[in-house]
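Action item from last meeting closed. Structure (489 res):
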């Protein structure tokens, strides 16, 4: 996993490192990494020599990093122009270096641009873009490069305008993001929350982390961890010569109904793609489940299902008295449970609170934003990590808050984010598939937070895999899980 650090911890680490280095060393390291990445991007658009490059230069160190990187590009022959957005507070040494290398200061963006460096504000910025920066940024899509394509936008450390510690993005009066939308972000020393979570992550584009020697100086607890494929591969349960269907784990699925049989077949499909050796289904859609999945053992009630190592409950279950009885029976079982959809609705009135508190086995809840709002009485808001952790502490459960960047929070305050999400998963039934897969991982013995993180990651990749063939539906995501899991080493 990759650690993500808040501004305060990054500032403290920078100060400690700079105290050990000659003045300006850290900025030169950052500028070198930035210039290298920009040169690679320019090589894809016809080369560095004579390439028209615009620096959007704000005040402080972020502007200095940008100017020094521009100087390096100018020395390689690029036609570098700098637009000084706060001329009275410009980094004077960086500006002198740019001019000495042949760069120039301009009052307006040139018409032809291959590359734009966003050095408006860094990790200390707050409150969206201000004039004249907002006007200049809004005009960038109207420019074209030597090849006729729009300019490549590179954010310096973070896209200007985002809320760095939360990943929130202010909106303009017209509802548009009041921040730079970058194709690439070159981050220095550490990932920041805005590069990993919330709407800001979508504005960061491809993120490249430049090592400037900061890692040994970062102290305290990261804001969150970004899950990677290597983590999933390490955690995923493996078969051995002694494996059989019961030792691999048995997952119970209490989803669907006669009214909503699709929820049952989808959640069972997700569970069958997971690592467990047997799926037991309990509910009103048992005939449809067995017809679609003949290996499943199906009964009509949770009480008749037999022994399992984890339960999945909720999708399409309904909210009538029968559904309440089934949920109570699931919660009474001394095994991990996944609560999704209708099961979350049944928790809202608080009538099951005592039963939840009495449980020793793990609980994972998987709300989307509207379900979160019903559970908490308020929307997740701009800080999705903090919101997830509040709900996790209140429910004493692992919370998987669905979204393009799904957040997983634990009751003891640890947070993870899934980077594999995709908007194509915003279609009916995909959450049922996710819940089934998650339950299978729990039944196989994974700790709740790892099971949630691994399920979200693989589910996101399955959405991307399914999208290769066109518009995505939930059954296609369930099928694509197998192709994704086939890549595990």
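Sequence:
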């Amino acid at each position: 996993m990759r650690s993500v650090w808040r501004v305060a911890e990054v500032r403290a680490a920078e100060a400690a490192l700079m105290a050990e280095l000659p003045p300006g060393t850290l900025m030169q390291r950052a500028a070198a990494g930035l210039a290298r990445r920009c040169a690679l991007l320019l090589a894809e658009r016809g080369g560095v020599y004579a390439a028209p490059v615009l620096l959007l230069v704000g005040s402080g160190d972020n502007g200095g990093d940008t100017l020094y990187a521009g100087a390096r590009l100018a020395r390689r022959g690029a036609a570098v122009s700098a637009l000084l957005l706060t001329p009275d507070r410009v980094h004077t040494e960086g500006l002198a270096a740019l001019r000495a290398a042949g760069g120039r200061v301009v009052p307006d963006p040139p018409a032809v641009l291959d590359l734009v460096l966003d050095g408006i504000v860094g990790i200390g910025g707050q409150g969206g873009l201000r004039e004249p920066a907002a006007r200049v940024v809004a005009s960038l899509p109207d420019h074209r490069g030597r090849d006729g394509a729009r300019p490549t936008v590179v954010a310096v450390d973070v896209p200007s305008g985002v809320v760095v510690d939360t990943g929130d993005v202010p909106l303009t009066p017209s509802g548009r993001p009041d921040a730079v939308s970058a194709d690439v972000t070159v981050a220095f020393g550490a990932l920041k929350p805005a590069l990993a979570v919330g709407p800001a992550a979508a504005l960061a584009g491809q993120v490249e982390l430049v090592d400037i020697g900061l890692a040994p100086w970062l102290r305290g607890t990261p804001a969150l961890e970004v899950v990677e494929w290597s983590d999933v591969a390490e955690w995923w349960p493996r078969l051995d010569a002694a494996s059989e269907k019961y030792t691999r784990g048995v997952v119970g699925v209490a989803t669907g109904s006669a009214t909503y049989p699709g929820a049952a077949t989808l959640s069972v499909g997700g569970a069958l793609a997971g690592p467990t050796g047997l799926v037991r289904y309990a509910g009103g859609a048992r005939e449809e489940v067995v017809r679609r999945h003949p290996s499943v053992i199906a009964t009509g009630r949770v009480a008749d299902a037999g022994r399992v190592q984890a339960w999945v409950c909720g999708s399409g279950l309904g909210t009538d008295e029968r559904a309440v009885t089934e949920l109570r029976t699931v919660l009474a079982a001394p095994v991990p449970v996944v609560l999704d959809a209708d099961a979350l609705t049944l928790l809202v009135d608080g009538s099951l609170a005592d039963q939840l508190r009495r449980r020793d086995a793990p609980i994972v809840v998987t709300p989307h934003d509207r379900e979160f709002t019903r559970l908490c009485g308020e929307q997740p808001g701009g800080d999705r990590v903090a919101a997830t952790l509040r709900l996790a502490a209140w429910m004493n459960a692992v919370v998987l808050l669905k979204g393009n960047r799904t957040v997983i929070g634990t009751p003891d305050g640890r947070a993870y984010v899934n980077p594999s999400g995709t908007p194509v998963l915003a279609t009916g039934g995909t959450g049922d598939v996710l819940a089934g897969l998650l339950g299978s991982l729990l039944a196989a013995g994974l700790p709740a937070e790892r099971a949630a993180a691994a399920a979200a990651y693989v589910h996101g990749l399955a959405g991307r895999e399914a999208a290769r063939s066109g518009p995505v539906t939930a059954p296609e995501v369930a099928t694509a899980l197998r192709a994704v899991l086939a890549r595990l080493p």
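Note appended to the action item: The chain has two domains: 2-221, 229-485.
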